[in-house]
Amino acid sequence: PERLQMWVDGALSLQCDRLPNPALRQVFGDEPGPKRFERTAALVDVSPSAAYVVDVFRVQGGRDHARFFHGTFGSLKPEGLSLKPGEGFGKDVLLRNVRTDPHPPVGWSATWTIEDHYKLLPAGAEVHMRHTDLTRDAEASAAEYWINAGNLATMDEQWIPALVTRRRGAAPLASTFVAVIEPYAKTPPIASMKRLDLVTPGGKPCPDSAVALEITLADGRRDLVIVADPGVPPAPVTVQSGWNVTTDGELALVRRDAAGRTLHVTLAKGTSLSVGPLKVAHEGEKTLTEWNCS
Q: What is the mean pLDDT of the chain?
């Protein structure tokens, strides 16, 4: 992209021009700019034709954080929300028909039924996308987002469905936005999901920025996904007691079958991961290790 901008409390606090690809050069100014602005997105295979994305976005600074998410053309069906007309997000934010739930449950979701606006899909094709939000202490909004569906020479103004997850509090506010995104044709690959708590080896609770998700797949397999917070010194060792998992990795995946047998382990960064008596460690200078138990 040519330019990336981030606004905090109505002021431009981050701007990147002529971004190199694939590297992203972040340019932070003085206060009130963010002290932290980082995102982890992990694509997790479910089968050769299905996958989901775990999306963790950490921001610190200012008093008002809003994460905007949209797909493409289509209809949006929220679930678990009690939506009523809500306030806007500023005169430069191109949203309309904002509806808000100020106190949504953790794990609310919204599903897109995709409209083939550009006529690219085979006749009769069915495409959906489900967004499940697991952010704590946040507001949830559904809205319509303005886009130009044309190109640089042709204007085709359209409004498409969008979601906003918002957190407000005293400065410097620290937020960890957590979501799971599932594209699918007819049946979603995930049956249920929930956030789990992480603790240190001494039993002290880890901060909200350390994320653990238990995801139950449609066929009964279960995934534990850990996205530790590398910004918490020293390098944390996190424990998920319900799964008997301990790791110092920044990103970890443990997959079990419906009977509870470990099928697969992934460790990114860190040095080791243990699942009960099983221990996985990097060899040499590796920073990613995958181990199949089956």
A: 87
d(CA 179, CA 159): 23
Q: Are 131 and 192 in contact (CB under 8 A)?
A: no
Contact of 227 with 56, CB cutoff 8 Å: yes
* pLDDT tens, residue by residue, 143-167: 999 999 888 888 889 999 999 999 9
Does residue 119 contact residue 163 with C-beta atoms inside 8 Å?
A: no
Check: CB of residue 181 under 8 Å from CB of residue 131.
yes
At residue 140, the 3 state secondary structure works out as strand
Alpha-carbon separation of residue 48 from 51, 55, 229 (angstroms): 8, 21, 30
Give every CB contact of residue 56 below 8 A, 6+ residues apart in sequence: 39, 40, 41, 176, 177, 178, 211, 227
**Location of structure tokens 């610190």:** 60
Amino acid sitting at position 9: D
End-to-end Cα distance, the chain = 42
- Tell me the two tokens of residue 245: 């998992």
Q: Is the peptide bond before 234 cis (omega within 30 degrees of 0)?
A: yes
The model's pLDDT over 50-102, given as tens digits with 9 standing for 90+, comes to 999 999 999 998 899 999 999 999 999 999 999 999 998 877 788 999 999 99
CA 204 to centroid of chain Cα atoms: 25
Tokens of 47: 């089968």
What type of residue is 44?
A: V
User: Dihedral sign, CA of 198, 204, 205, 207?
Assistant: negative
